[in-house]
Structure formats: C-alpha cells, structure tokens
Amino acid sequence: MEKAKTLEKLNEELRNVQKEWVEKRLKEYILELKKEDSAYRKDKDSNRNVYELSCPFCMGLTEEYVVNKDKKKKVMIIGQQPLGFGCWDEHSKDFDPGENTEGDKNEWSHIGLQNWAREYLKTQLSKNKENGIAYNPSPFWRLFGALKEDYVLCWNDIDKVYYGKKEEAYREGTLTYKAESFLSAAFEYEGKRVSLVKKEIEIARPDVVVFATGPSYAQTMAVALDYKPYQKKKIMNKSPKREVPVIDLESIKLDDETVRVLWTYHPGYLTQAKYKDKNLFNEAIDKIKIFIEAESEDKS
Fold first, then answer.
1. pLDDT digits over 109-150, tens only?
2. Widest pairwise Cα distance in the chain
3. Domain count of the fold of the chain
4. At a CB cut-off of 8 Å and minimum separation 6, what does 104 contact?
5. Residues 133/147/113/107 CA torsion (nearest 10 deg)
6. Which domain holds residue 265?
7. What is the 3-state secondary structure (H, E, C) of the chain?
8. Given pLDDT bands bounded at 50, 70 and 90, which one contains residue 104?
9. pLDDT value of residue 276
C-alpha cells in the first residue's frame, strides 16, 4: 500500500507544478497569440481556427518506474512535442473541472491527460493493446524498446504544446523560438524559480535524462535546463552530429545529487534510409548504454 501511495504522491506533485505552469506560462502565451492577426484566425468555410494549440502534455510516472523492484537505472527519455494532442480551445474547460467532478473519468481533465500519458507508455513498453491504446511502432518508441530490458523508463516532452493546422494533424506549424523560450522558462513555484521540465526531472529523480530531440531543440533545451549564457552558447555549438550521434551534456544538480544529461537526434532522423547503411540508430543506442553504465561506475 505504501508503494502505491508513493506513486500517487509523485504524480500529484507532477500535476501541481504542471497546473502552475498552465496558469503562469501557457495562459499568458495564449493571450499573446490572440493579439496576433495570424493567430486564431477563422477558416471561412469551417469557421474553425486555421491554426490550433494542442492540449498540454502532462507526464506521469508508472508503478514499474517508481517501485523499480529490480533496482535498475532510471532513465527519462524526453521527446520533442505532442503532435495532434487534442485542441486546447475545445478542452481547456475540462482541464480543471473542480473538486465536485470526477476529473479522472474525463479524458481531457488534467488527471485524465496524465493517466493517458502513463497508459500510453505502458502500452508501448508491453506492446499489448490496453484501454483502447495500440502499440506504436514508430522510431521514437523503438528507442524505448531498445532500452526497456536494461532500465526502467519514463516519458516526457520538451515542448508541452504544439501549434499547427488541425486538418493536417498539427504537422504544419511549430512553436517559434520566442514561444519556446517563454514556455520553457523558469517561473515562481513554491518560493523558487524553476522551469517545468527541470522540476519534473527533480520529482521523477532519474539517474540519466536522454533528450531525443535533435539540434533544432537546442534553444528550448537550454532555457528549460536554466543554462547560463556561456552554457547556452556551448550547447548551441555542441549538437549531435552523424559522426557523434550522442552528446554528454553538463549534469543537472538536484540538491546533493546530479543527473547525467545525454542529447541525441530524434529517432526518426536516426532511422532515415540514407543512414541505414551505417546503423546510426543502433550506434546511438550503444552510445547511450555506455554513458548510462559509466554513470553507474561514477556513483559506485
């Protein structure tokens, strides 16, 4: 019972900081969006917004990750952004339904979104269709499959929302660097300034974080990790390359602990046809494992 309670408490802590981020970052961003003529404009035929903002990705931890009965290394894999993840305009009223409604039964409530993320991860790791969620054989989830036997995994995204065309499943459009910098930046939380991603890492306490984002996300990564100016310059000049597909970045300090940070391409890039002859995907997996095992030796 105590272990299950610990799992519940950790996911509650994640929801608390996510909720604060929605209030202090996401809602402010939406106000700025609505000031722009190009944003939120209506399509003349459907009267729908041409570009729409997705619902936020709300990470959660699984029982396997928290209990970790085999005492494996814990790894957080961070992807790019939640493509096609609902429409915030349609579902924002459901995000915080209040104390008098059963939010966990509403898939678009905060706890509903977090439960979906947890269940989706569990399905991708087991490859068994559960709760209406099917296995996704995309390169991103192949990365999880390649690591799941040796480590316990949790899933996160660096950009919590996506802004694009509804009719094209959000694949036409992106957050600007300005938007990423604002949404990923630190805000006041429990008497300290902290970014959402950094606080999520603090709560989840992985041994290693793997950013599977690629060079295009250097800006938002630097902001989210609260890098100093010299560190930001360093990360911009130290992105993964074909010859070196995995980069070992500066560790994150959490109280008296440190968390190793790795940076690689998005697996979709690693598996492109023109790189298959080099097995770039397998090379990246091998490098990630070497870094994780080195972390084990450093702390032994």
1. 999 999 999 999 999 999 888 777 888 999 999 999 999 999
2. 64
3. 1
4. 111, 112, 115
5. 10
6. 2-299
7. CHHHHHHHHHHHHHHHHHHHHHHHHHHHHHHHHHHCCCCCCECCCCCCECEEECCCCCCCCCHHHHHCCCCCEEEEEEECCCCCCCCHHHHHHHHCCCCCCCHHHCCCCHHHHHHHHHHHHHHHHHCCCECCECCCCCHHHHHHHHHCCCEEEEEEECCCCCEEEHHHCCCCCCCCHHHHHHHHCCEEECCEEECHHHHHHHHHCCCEEEEECCHHHHHHHHHHCCCCHHHHHHHHCCCCCCCCCEEEEEEEEECCEEEEEEEECCHHHHCCHHHHHHCHHHHHHHHHHHHHHHHHHHHC
8. low
9. 59
Over range 209-223, report the average pLDDT. Answer: 92
Q: Is the pLDDT of residue 224 over 90?
A: yes
Tokens of 210: 């793997």
Give tens-digit pLDDT for 21-31. 999 999 998 88
Higher pLDDT, 26 or 175: 26
